Amino acid sequence: MFSQHAVFFAFLTYRYFRLIVNIVAFYLIRPIAIPENPRLTSQDITVVIPSLALEKDRDELWETVHSILATDPFQIILVTIDENVERVKLMVKNMTTDNVRVLSVNHPNKRRQMVRAIPEIRTNITVFADDDVRWPRTLLPWMLAPLENDEFGGVGTNQKLRRAEDPTLSERIWGYLGALYLLRRNFDCAACNYMDGGLPCLSGRTVAYRTKIISDDAFTCGFTHEEWNSEYQLNADDDNFITRWLVSHGHKIAFQYHRQAEVETTLENNPKFLKQCLRWSRSNWRSNITSMFVERHIWRQQPWSTYAVHLTTLTHWAILWDAGLLYFCPKNIEIFAPVVALIFISKWIKFVGHYIRYPVDVLLVPVSILFGYFHGFFKLYAACTLHITAWGSREGADTNDAYRMIHLTRTDRDHAAEIRALASGTQ
Asked: Given CB 3.0 to 4.6 Å as the disulfide criterion, which of 256, 307, 405, 424 pairs with 261?
């Protein structure tokens, strides 16, 4: 039906048209500038930090809170679990500040911790932050700049990995893979946001929302009663839910790609990184399937982002695409050699800035290529295990894992539907 050349051209176009356009968009995007006379200031922001607050993470949490305090928000609300609340209160007391408030829930779940804090917020803007981030002092004005326009409901920032000091070879390799994960995410978010205002997801590591959006009863009900596959109540993937909520309710999303809005974070620099990848992959499958085939708003509102990031959940399998290209490629050297070169260049072209900043990492390019092929098997396994929500990479995070994915009876589903209808005013 189709000639070999036609199949080759289709493979080549689908795979690399997206890359070429995204590279151009990435280098064209500019952050929304800080106005000369902003009406929003840091005092319009409350920062919410959900945290387990384990003893071994005390120093890291302390540094996170200090870096956020340095940006002068109106208030920080730390939400931990009941069994650790006294430890957190003692830590805050030793900080000698009145700007940090401590709340708790009975068991760890990020959605429940966020919902616990929302009614206590008295500012127009809410920023959610993870307990292992470091903020630059310049962050908040850049996050607030898009929110000067009432059409914007959420703002994300670019992220970078905090590199380990004097790492072993193993730690350097795992850290390198983690750094590329964040860089790839920055690239996709920036490029897609430039093209049509979309992005894969507003990462919960640090993200700003209008408080009136997340304090709405309909949002709270949907956030605490999300269903997956009409069989489970999903209490994981919080940032994916909120991103989809903004899209479905017509709020614009901004991504401030700027060095002064760059948040530092940590990832595992050991084999536990694979468990993080598995968790992220499952989350992407669940959310992108919901976006494309259940809610479906993105097809009309964000067509480029749908093609460039959401559809790749189904279509991007590096080892199959590369093998297919080479199989269908004409075998004369004038075509075959450039195609091989294109495949190789595409593996690192997104990260040129990183290699300029850290030239030694060029030696690890083969590792990233092999990991990209290996990740396809991870992605397939994730697709077959979407009912699993375990972290597997953080102590104490899975103590109440069963709560993240609760099997629903027919009665449960009907009751949840009634609650959502009442909250949205449709009944």
From this structure: 256
